Amino acid sequence: LNGGAVPSAPPTYT
Amino acid sequence: MAVVNEGALKKMLSKQYKYRDLTVREIVNVISHYKDLKPVMDAYVFNDGSTRDLMSLTGTVPVSYRGNVYNIPVCLWLLDTYPYNPPICFVKPTSTMMIKTGKHIDANGKIYLPYLHEWKHPQSDLFGLIQVMIVVFGEEPPVFSRPTTQTPYQPFQP
């Protein structure tokens, strides 16, 4: 089954 | 290629949608291109507390940022007057993400874009909106991953 893309976000640049 | 069933979509769209054929055609166009956006009928809560069952496109859009591609989680609500009114758009951060408020994003994750503000059918459509979102988010991501707290204390080595 197409589980769909895993949500992701850029790392926090501290 | 998952065949998207227009008939099923039309059934999903509640009777209140005034321009169902136009709306279904746009949804089919978008979800056959952006495979991770799914049509979902759900209750939308308006600012005055009233709720209404509306169609949303929920999932992620691919955004390139600093050489990597991220799947930014979004939810695009279609009012029952769509396409004569713009969608109401949100980023939907997961528990490991935090919203980066700014010119285009408020603390609730609501998305503000000139493309939405100046919405005009038929020049404006869902496909164009998502393309603008991808460009804008590629310059200024609406969400970032929460920093993982590195524990400075090293566990005792027996």
Key attributes of the depicted protein:
heterodimer; A: 14 residues; little secondary structure; 0% helix; B: 158 residues; alpha+beta; four-stranded antiparallel sheet; two-stranded antiparallel sheet; 6 strands; 25% helix; 28% strand; elongated
Explain how this protein is built.
- Chain A is largely without helices or strands and 14 residues long.
- Chain A has no helix or strand.
- Chain A is rod-shaped, with a radius of gyration of 12 Å.
- The model of chain A has no long low-confidence stretch (mean pLDDT 78).
- Chain B is of the alpha+beta class and 158 residues long.
- Chain B is 25% helix and 28% strand.
- Chain B has helices at residues 6-12, 20-33, 114-117, 126-139, and strands spanning 37-45, 51-65, 68-78, 88-91, 97-99, 143-145.
- In chain B, strands 1-2-3-4 form a four-stranded antiparallel beta sheet. In chain B, strands 5-6 form a two-stranded antiparallel sheet.
- Chain B is elongated.
- The mean pLDDT of chain B is 92.
- Chains A and B meet through loops of A and strand 2, strand 3 and strand 6 of B.
> Overall pLDDT of chain A, averaged?
78
What is the chains' assembly state? heterodimer
Mean pLDDT of chain B: 92
- Spans of chain B of at least 5 consecutive residues whose pLDDT stays below 50 are none
Strand order of the largest sheet of chain B: 1-2-3-4
Beta-strand portion of chain B reads: 25-35%
Largest sheet of chain B: 4 strands, antiparallel
Task: Report how far apart the termini of chain B are.
Answer: 56 Å
Helix content of chain A: under 10%
Could you say which structural class the secondary elements and strand pairing of chain A correspond to?
A: little secondary structure
Q: Biggest chain pair contact, residues each?
A: A-B, 12 and 26 residues
Roughly what percent helix of chain B?
10-25%
Q: What is the beta-strand fraction of chain A?
A: under 5%
